[in-house]
Amino acid sequence: MTVTVGMITCDTTDALALATWWAEQTGGTITEENEGWYVMVALPTGLVLGFQKVDDPTPGKNRLHLDVVTDDLAAEVERLRAAGAGVVAERGDDNFRWVTMTDPAGNEFCVAPRH
Asked: What's the whole-model pTM score?
């Protein structure tokens, strides 16, 4: 017996705002709002992101994060910055580079070139 990942969920103090931001950045669609306490975003890939409203998000570095890929790393990083993302660090070497960023709620994610 095995399990299948059904959704990746993020705690946040404003579920609708963060879900809307991620839907805009990924071309996803908000499929459920649940009065703002739990918002679901269906991505074009079939994956679903969930955003759960909590009073007190877990402090410190998130242990689980999203990795997104793009055909133009520099252009995508600039687009995300203009949309409200922050840059934590540019990482990697001549063989593979990526950029660690934060969404508007401070959750880290990485942007890398599509292979």
From this structure: 0.85
